[in-house]
Each structure stands twice: as C-alpha cells, then as structure tokens.
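Lecture notes, part 5. Sequence design as translation. It can be helpful to think of inverse folding as translation between two languages: the language of shapes and the language of residues. The source text, in structure tokens, appears below.
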C-alpha cells in the first residue's frame, strides 16, 4: 500500500498523469486523470458513441479487500490510455439482507448496451454477504447512462428447470451419487453433469462470468458453472436482462474460469483460465463458428517466459478497438489478494495466426 501511495505521490509531484499517456504499460501503476491508480478490477470495457467505459470491482486496501465496501466503479476514456473516474456506477446498499449489502462480493462486472430499450445493462457475479462463494449467483442492473447510476434488478442462479441444449437425453436419466471418493470418479461424474442434476430445480451456479453482444444484437451470458467445473453459455432475452432458457455446456469437467470472448472474421474466440483461486495458472483458448455449438480447444495462448502463469494474470475481457477493424486488446488482472487495491492490469495486443490467438509480453506498447 505504501508503495502505491508513494508512486502516486511521485507521479503527481512531477505532474505525470495518465492525461499525457499514449502507451499501455502492463503491470505498472495506472493513474487516472486524478493521479490515482485505477480501481476497476475484474472488469470489462464498453464502447459507446465515441467513449469507452471501463467498469470494474472497486477494491479497498488490506486483506478484506475483496468484499465490496463501495461497489462497482466506472471510468471513461476516448483513447483507452487515459481514464477519468466517473464514480461508483452501482453502489453497495446499507440494508441488512439486501442482495448487494455492503460486505457482499461483487465480481467481474460487464456492461452491454441494448439498442432497442436504449438501456445499459450491467451483469456481475454476486456472492451474498457472509456466505463465502456459496451463493454463486449472477446479478443484473440497468441504467439510462453508461456511467450510471445503475438500478439493481435481481440476482439468481439461472436456467432453473431446463436442460442444456447439448445435454444428451441418456444422461438426463442418470442418478448420481452425492459423493465420489477418487479423482477419476469425481471427474467422470462432473463431466457427465452431477452438479447440473443437483441444481436442476433451483438454477445453475454462476461464478466468473462475462456477457457478449453478437453482430446480430443477440446477447450471451458466459459463466463458470457446476462448481466451476463446466462453462455455460446462455442466450439472454431481447432486453438483455433475463435468460431465455436456451443454454449449452462447454468443456464439461475442464474447470474453466475467467471467460472472455471476441469475434473476428466470423470466428468466436474465448480465453479462459484454469481454476486456482487468486493464483495465476496457464490460460486456455478456444474457438468456434457457432457460439451455441461445438467449441474447439486451442491451448494456452500465452507465449514465452511466464506463459505458464499467463504473465501472472487472469483474463477478464477482450476489447475490440473502435475504428481499427478487428483489432483486439486482451484485458487481464494481476491479483494481489494481500492488498487487493494494488492489483495491476495486464493489457496486451491479442494476435492471431491461422485462427489461433496469441499473447506476447510487452513492457510498453500502443495500438
Ligand atoms: C478466481 C476468480 O477468477 C476471481 O474472480 C475470484 O472469484 C477468485 N477466484 C476467488 O478466489
């Protein structure tokens, strides 16, 4: 914390602010226009009418930093380098028992814009206060303006009472045991859907998540479900604030977290991480031409030194740079759970060779 304050002080002393920044410097302190390190972790970026909006988790200093004391913060920028703090887009509530009561966990927020309703729709992962990561809900809020304030709508475990579109009838009839003793038995049961069955009536778990609006304006919710063992991709309703009940399982039993997605030349690419808490692990990538169809696994997109820790980062979002054709930026977090507010941002150019995404380290770069 002291280091962060000291660096902020030195930067402001010499008048160095992000206002004059024209490069990305992954892993370094990233000052906003008030010379304060940007506080928008696990976030996403929406482009709307000439402005980028970055929403993320506002973390506080110290060990309790992952509990939401403030809410979800929003920044704006016209060039992706220099960011202005727009304030708290969705604030925690000081009411005992409220879903987003102060002290709950609000993670990985993303904003999408619905052209028909003209509403900005924010989705995020919600864990109820005092319950650790047990609730595993997805939550939604809406606003008339990208920077908020957002009105909280609801949270839940989605897709209650419906089977995934790609779940075979033969598996619907299987009776799973409550516990499995050996790893191979566990993995086999997870892959075949033991948690899908367990949560069938009350809704499927939803932890790490993102949302994606396709070129035909249909929106999708992508989440780590089934005790983080299997990804679910669900179609959202026309107003983007609900689930239609159409969803698929992706990479059953492969334990993917931190989904991020983009589309280039008609191909969808996803970058995810493995499941190791706050510790980094080798990322994974995948592609498909049908978002609700079969996904093909492509392996770790990170190259070179520290590729096995994804340059000590975890994916959160992929930005399509406006006006640059299909040019993308990978957005990742370098978590610092011992002092969450000091978490750093790893933004790198996402490169493609023969329909395969790659990430190379750069100390400093620009687009
Ligand atoms: C990894 C996830 O990607 C983070 O968003 C967070 O939920 C941590 N796990 C908690 O351990």
């Amino acid at each position: 914390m002291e280091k962060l304050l000291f660096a902020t002080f030195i930067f402001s002393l010499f008048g160095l602010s992000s206002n004059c920044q024209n490069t990305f410097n992954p892993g370094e302190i990233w000052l906003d226009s008030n010379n304060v390190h940007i506080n928008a972790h696990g976030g996403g970026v929406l482009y709307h009418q000439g402005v980028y909006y970055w929403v993320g988790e506002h973390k506080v200093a110290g060990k309790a930093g992952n509990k939401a004391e403030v809410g979800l913060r929003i920044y704006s920028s016209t060039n992706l380098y220099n960011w202005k703090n727009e304030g708290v887009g969705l604030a925690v509530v000081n009411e005992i028992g409220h879903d987003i009561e102060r002290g709950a966990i609000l993670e990985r927020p993303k904003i999408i814009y619905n052209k028909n309703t003209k509403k900005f729709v924010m989705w995020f992962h919600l864990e109820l206060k005092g319950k650790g990561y047990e609730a595993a809900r997805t939550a939604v809020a809406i606003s008339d303006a990208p920077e908020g304030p957002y009105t909280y709508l609801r949270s839940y475990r989605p897709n209650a009472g419906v089977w995934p579109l790609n779940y075979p009838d033969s598996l619907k009839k299987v009776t799973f045991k409550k516990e499995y003793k050996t790893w191979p038995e566990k993995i086999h049961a997870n892959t075949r859907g033991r948690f899908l069955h367990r949560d069938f009536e009350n809704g499927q778990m939803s932890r790490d998540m993102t949302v994606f609006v396709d070129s035909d304006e249909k929106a999708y919710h992508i989440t780590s479900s089934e005790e983080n063992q299997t990804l679910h991709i669900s179609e959202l309703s026309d107003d983007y604030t609900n689930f239609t009940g159409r969803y698929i399982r992706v990479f059953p039993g492969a334990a993917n977290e931190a989904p991020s997605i983009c589309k280039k030349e008609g191909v969808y690419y996803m970058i995810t991480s493995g499941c190791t808490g706050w510790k980094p692990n080798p990322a994974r990538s995948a592609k498909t031409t049908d978002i609700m169809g079969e996904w093909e696994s492509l392996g770790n997109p990170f190259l070179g030194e520290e590729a096995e820790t994804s340059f000590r980062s975890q994916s959160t979002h992929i930005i399509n740079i406006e006006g640059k054709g299909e040019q993308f930026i990978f957005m990742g977090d370098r978590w610092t759970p011992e002092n969450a507010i000091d978490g750093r941002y790893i933004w790198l150019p996402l490169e493609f060779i023969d329909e395969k995404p790659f990430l190379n380290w750069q100390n400093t770069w620009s687009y």
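The translated text above is only one of many valid answers, since several sequences can fold into similar shapes. The longest strand covers residues 105-114.
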